[in-house]
Specification:
The chain is α/β, with parallel strands linked by helices. It is 46% helix and 14% strand.
């Protein structure tokens, strides 16, 4: 039961050039840093000591390491704060003080303090599949992510790119007088993208899937 707790709103954030602060320097903090780097965030780590990999990132200029014990002024300018020390009291203090300053907060060990949680992610090209338990069971989320990795092969990313190219083609045609409207394009996609297409992709019959999609669109337009 959720005990009347509101569900989290699923959202994807762009963190390009956003200031993200990680409080902590251990393995959990390192995992947060890795994902933030993948999203081009500006990262500051606050910890008196860090593991070797974090230190190497700081030496390479990829992150900023504030070699200090946590204090609230070190959070200044942060968009979001990840509390990932092995000290529950420090995590709670940092979380509450970040919230006071209007910053988004993630606490690795205490979901109830989180403004957001980090889903398990499977990336297939531009297609991003995520799964989350809202912090209730990271182990179960990890198991589901591993299952998704097996089910959704790289061909799904290739198909996403193909469909995007077709979409842009239809939009370009719609720019001319008498061409397709937005509502007409939506009807085309509903006819072209069927459960049968998903089965073809699962079976890695990508060429046939592309052919069937193009064929369905052409039939709907004729």
């Amino acid at each position: 039961m959720r005990n009347n707790e509101a569900e989290m709103y699923p959202i994807n954030l762009k963190l390009d050039n956003r200031q993200c602060t990680v409080v902590g320097g251990g393995e959990v903090a390192y995992r947060k840093i890795q994902r933030l780097l993948e999203n081009n965030a500006h990262i500051t780590v606050i910890a008196p000591m860090v593991k070797a990999q974090i230190k190497a990132l700081a030496q390479a200029g990829k992150i900023t390491w504030r070699q200090e014990t946590y204090s609230k002024p070190l959070l200044e300018g942060s968009f979001c704060v990840f509390c990932a020390t092995d000290n529950r009291g420090v995590n709670r203090q940092a979380a509450l003080e970040a919230k006071e300053s209007g910053m988004l907060v993630n606490v690795a060990s205490e979901p109830e303090l989180c403004d957001f949680t980090l889903p398990g992610v499977v990336q297939r090209g531009r297609l991003q599949l995520t799964v989350s338990s809202e912090g209730a069971s990271p182990a179960f989320t990890r198991l589901l992510r591993q299952d998704m990795e097996r089910r959704y092969h790289q061909g799904f990313g290739e198909m996403a790119e193909y469909i995007e190219a077709l979409r842009q083609e239809l939009i370009a045609e719609g720019a001319g007088e008498g061409k397709t409207t937005s509502e007409q394009r939506q009807r085309l996609w509903r006819q072209a993208l069927t459960p049968d297409i998903i089965e073809l992709i699962y079976n890695q019959e990508l060429d046939r899937a592309k052919y069937e999609i193009r064929n369905a669109i052409n039939r709907a337009r004729s």
